[in-house]
Amino acid sequence: MLILGGALLADAESTLRLACGVLVEDGRIAALGANAALLAEAPRAEVLDARDLILAPGFINAHHHTYGLLAHGIPADGDPPRGFERFLRDLWWPRVEDRLDGEMIEAAAELACVAMIRSGTTAFCDVLEAPAAGAGILDRLAGVVERAGLRAVLCLEASERRGRALGEEARRENERFAAKADGERVRGMQCLHTSFTCSESFVRAAKESAVRAGRDLHLHLSESVYEPDECLRRHGVRPVFWYDRMGFWDPTVLASQVVAVHDDELRCLAERGARVAHMPLSNCEVAGGIAPVPKMIARGLRPGLGTDGYLNDPFAVMRGAFLLHKAAARDAAVMPARTVLAMATTWGAAAIGWPELGGLAPGRPADVIGVRAAGDTPLTPENVADQIVLYRGHGDVRLTLVGGRVLYRDGELTTLDEEAARCAAHREAARLWAGGRGG
To answer: At what angle do helices 102-119 and 137-148 cross, to 10 degrees?
Structure first.
């Protein structure tokens, strides 16, 4: 397949190239170059005319909870919870996580995949928080991802919140799934919750499991001041250092949120080579705070961007990252658009442990999106990052390919039935809100 582009942005750091396209062979990029040169090189290729679009790498959602879609608009019992701990204990755990079953999880994932394809997200890391979902739940989730045609790293959060036995079941589910995932489209990793729902022995067991299997490990870290305060009370140190004294941090570990952290904790994470995912909008929703992302970057950390299952629009999240940190620092030079775009692509790919994604180059997977080139003002090599991050939206995505396969073109999905997915999600959301459980 030869995709003729109006312009080509190979990655967040590259120079925009006009009238350039992408040649795809066997699901990978064979060449990038001027449209005319590629036509001469591959005269018999199937041609996809995208000369009204900017061709770019697909977005990477570095931290997603696809099941969270079912909680969008969930009726509140009384006043909204005040503070992160109350949000978890009064709403999220009892009314969402503890009620989830297989049908709910599959329905939410399918509609979430529709949204990702439509908005140009081609790979994501999904953290399922469903302690009673049962063995094999990651296979069901993987089936949805494979039908959609996307790429994903999948894991089931393990903790002792509802007892050690359920936590160990989740840890074994991650081990089983990661061992069988093919790695081409779907991968697995080990997963923990936090220092306030996991004991030291449980954390050590999960880390040993990940090391033994040669897999990555994910955890939530200091999403608000609640975790550092609890960790200090229970263990006498802040969370980063509690984990560090177990030899926990290394380049295989992905920490999401990372909001309420001190400079010395960031230094420790950077020195150990840990990976980070940033959720600017959901951190606001739960009143967790604003993560010190500019300080992370200054320390050498390269955070990816995630939706957290909240507002599942990469353009909204990019704008949030671009604007929030400027306001927090009172410095308009903080978080330039190129940096934010890197977080949504190249850095996000590295964060989820899939570094060959997030950029377009010969030999890499042909995960390509096309974004409307025409805007209110002229598109130039100097302003392309600003145009994408600030002045385009999910409706401007007109083309999504993963592995050279067209998943979306000009408003039409090729792998999923959006109406059927929406009906199923509505049905399962109503059942979740009513407190029902199936199988």
So the answer is: 30
Contact partners, residue 207, CB within 8 Å, separation at least 6: 190, 217, 246, 247, 248
Residues 6+ apart with CB under 8 A from 222: 228, 238, 239, 240, 257, 258, 259, 260, 261, 265
The CA distance from 268 to 291, in Å, is: 16
What pLDDT shows up at residue 437?
Answer: 59
Residues whose CB falls within 8 Å of the CB of residue 234, separated by 6 or more in sequence, listed in order: 195, 196
Angle formed at CA 133 by CA 240 and CA 143, multiple of 5 degrees: 95
Domains identified in the chain and CATH numbers:
2-58+357-413 (2.30.40.10), 60-351 (3.20.20.140)
Q: Minimal CA–CA distance to 199: which of 169, 234, 233?
A: 234
Query: 51: part of which helix (H) or strand (E)?
Result: strand 47-57
| Ordered alpha helix ranges (H), 222-375 | 226-235, 239-244, 263-272, 280-285, 293-299, 314-329, 337-344, 346-351
Taking only the tens place, the pLDDT of each residue in 170-221 is 999 999 999 999 789 999 999 999 999 999 999 999 999 999 999 999 999 9
User: Do residues 44 and 66 touch, judged by C-beta distance below 8 A?
Assistant: no
Spell out the residues 6+ positions from residue 424 whose beta carbon is closer than 8 angstroms to its own. 106, 107, 110, 111
